[in-house]
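SEVERITY: medium
COMPONENT: batch folding queue
REPORTER: lab tech (J.R.)

DESCRIPTION
The queue accepted two submissions in a row. Attaching both inputs and their returned structure tokens so the on-call engineer can compare them side by side.

ATTACHMENT 1
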Amino acid sequence: MEDTDSFATLMDSTSSKIQQLQKAFAELESYRAVTLNLKWKELEAHFRGLEKSLKRRFHELEDQEKEFENKTMKAQEIVKKREAAVVAKEQATLQRLQEKRDAAVFAIVNAREKHRKVSSKGIAIVSDGDEGHGTPEVEEKPMNSACVAAEVNLQDVKTSPGIANVESMSYLELVKLCEEMDAGGIHKFISDNRKNLAAIREEVPLALRAAPNAALLVLDSLEGFYDAEVPNHDVKKDANLLGLRRTCIMLMECLSVLLSNSESVSDVISEDIKDKAKAVAEEWKPRLLDIDASNGNSLEAHAFLQLIASFGIASNFNEEELSRLIPLVSRRRQAADLCRSLGLSEKMPGVIKVLVDSGRHIDAVNLAFAFDLTEQFSPVPLLKSYLDDARKFSHVKSVNSSPTAQIRNILDSFDIYVLFQLRYPNSLIAIMNY
């Protein structure tokens, strides 16, 4: 701002400088005998023109500076709103989680009380018929804690204050389906409650504990992932099949969560189940050949890799082949976790290089951050390359693309801005000066 003021002061002194030059010119002309061919009016017109041009350019720069400041303020406001929305969602999630914990504690307390009463009444006393001479034998049958929780009186849960009644009832229904090993029923339950998918995702790992064989239940739920009646090119048009595939992936992710909280993986997944999972993976593998890798958002590739990761059968597959599948899922939020679960962390520099060479700089930047490879793959040059490519094709896209595609391009650009504002603030200055 100080530079602007000093420049404006210099502009104001231009007229006085011209007047001084006029006096000097007149004095020079008085000392010569022959009149100069170059008249003062011509010089004055020249300098007045320069003065006018400089002032016009100065005002244009002022307008551009104000416009840039306005855009910067709007961008900052949008980022603040997004941050506020994220905080609000986190608070809502924490509150919902607390309500579920309260419901679970209440259910366990009631179940223990009922179990104590049933155990005291169910003691079988066997005697020889003579009172006082027989030795009583006590027989107690141990109860599964998950089964007990499933048999809690729903009316008690309904009438309890401060508890999410509907969510508690849904959880008990989910536990019952897991106890019965009803894979089809679980699919239907999730499909009917997709509005509460975030809550269900948290409940499934707990409900799977009630299943006699959780790994087999999840493996059975994969049946129908590839519907023979639906050709590959028509899958995106079939909403039901897409929903089924997403549910399959979610159940496999929940199995991984269950395993991470278990003391022994072998207690959950037997070698027999692993062999069956390997057979399913071998059946799915050839179907990945026809998938387009350019979008990086393949459900089929995600399911294949999640199957290998969840059932712990990565050692049965070649690491190079698995790493070549990562670009198929590079845009999915679970990509980094999948790579770690599959033991592909050391392969990530090669994967990121493939993404860079194929022009998918944003995916490359995300994985570089996830695996601390930003020194090897600096985000600033990658983003500059992305902007260069965007500029080359922006005119063609604006003419030939649909309004939806144009809006998506704008959102992608804004996501880049937010990404570097939050993750790499020092690079944002270099990018804005680019």
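ATTACHMENT 2
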Amino acid sequence: MLSVLRVHLPSDIPIVGCELSPYVLLRRPDKTVTTDDVPESAPLDGHFLRYKWYRIQSDRKVAVCSVHPSEQATLQCLGCVKAKIPVAKSYHCSPKCFSDAWQHHRVLHDRAASAVNENGNEEEEIFGRFNSTGSGVISASLTGSASSTSLTNGSTPLYPTAVTQRSGGETWFEVGCSKTYTPTTDDIGHVLKFECVVIDAETKLPVGQPNTLLTSRVIPAPSPSPRRLISVGGADMMGQLDSDGRLSSSGTFTVLSYNILSDSYASSELYSYCPSWALSWPYRRQNLLREIVGYRADIVCLQEVQCDHFDEFFAPELDKHGYQALYKRKTNEVYSGNIHTIDGCATFFRRDRFSHVKKYEVEFNKAAQSLTEVAVQTTQKKVALNRLVKDNVALIVVLEAKFTNQGADNPGKRQLLCVANTHVNVQQELKDVKIWQVHTLLKGLEKIAASADIPMLVCGDFNSVPGSVEFCPVLPIHFLLWERLIHCIRIYWSIHLQFCVLTAS
């Protein structure tokens, strides 16, 4: 018979707007183990799974800190209340927390004072509001009126108000009946309960005891930290932005390059200073999408994009904002043994600004094999390949601009642009390998540029800092690379100058 072996959540702390997707391990009637769902529409051996979500709401409401959302608030900023700033942002867990956050927090007051609220209602939807009113300096036992009992998941009501149980000053509201659930602002400060039970398809009655789990209290999504943008002299285009935040000059375009950190690398071992909820993919993907879309770039180059996240999230979501997507995954998967944990490079461009002409894929592993065949002695090939084969890739896309280049000598000529997107090897001790990978990429771009006189744009994560490129004569192939390095630099500057000509207004 179908049975549930285990249920758990990737993170115990739920966040407003971030979908909760429990891991449910099942044993099939044939004794095999699976994580596949068994819905009522497709029962297995006369049984299916039924899911329910509940909000456990106590008579005493709890406010949470706007800076440390896993902590209970003990004080409230009166300035926020008077300025009608979303109340969730006024709470702090301690005087020190409020003092440390003041430099950032005062920006909220300044914006409210000048009646400038860039996010409007959207900000409330994303970050959540604890309550619509508040007053006074709040003590350690913050209380408030109960929130609305209208149960929603998103903006559309999904379930009628349903009180499942009242016991010991607690009320259980049914808030969902599917496997996944997205916490709403009504859930802030409350514990959620997930229930999974096997149901007999004929009688519709539960078989055995339900499997349940409780979350921590739901927290509002913290406000994103402000970016410290650096203005580059001669490249500040803010004066040429139109009402939609787009560049109004027809001969210019904007580019965004961003390593988004693959979920397979976002582990607590590597990022021990981050709470588990901040590392969870449902939370990070929401913030990444908001930021990427917010820049309104004409071309977007992303690195460390997980294969399944590209197919299921980035490609369809950015398509809604007018982007066409192209992708190149790495040549080997992460040790998990699941092909979906492969990450790679993704390039997006606005369909109203560019059209796709051609795509090239660069696999540095293949280039390494070709190099060792002709430039390395037979006895050293294995050592050379072990050093050079690192599974990194590059994605090269040729685009045609749908806008004219002002001041061009031949306005009727096709305006082509070649965009390269890569992620160079991360290991700092392999400085020579980084040089070789960049050299290999630029050598290929040189051929493309020479064949059609196309300007180049090179984006990516090069995993390098000033002074990190050094000559390390470990293998004979490094002497060959060193001889070509000056040539490589000349190619780069040639590409850079061609790009400047294209973007000149």
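NOTES FROM REPORTER
Residues 271 and 376 are 39 Å apart (CA to CA).
No errors were logged for either attachment.
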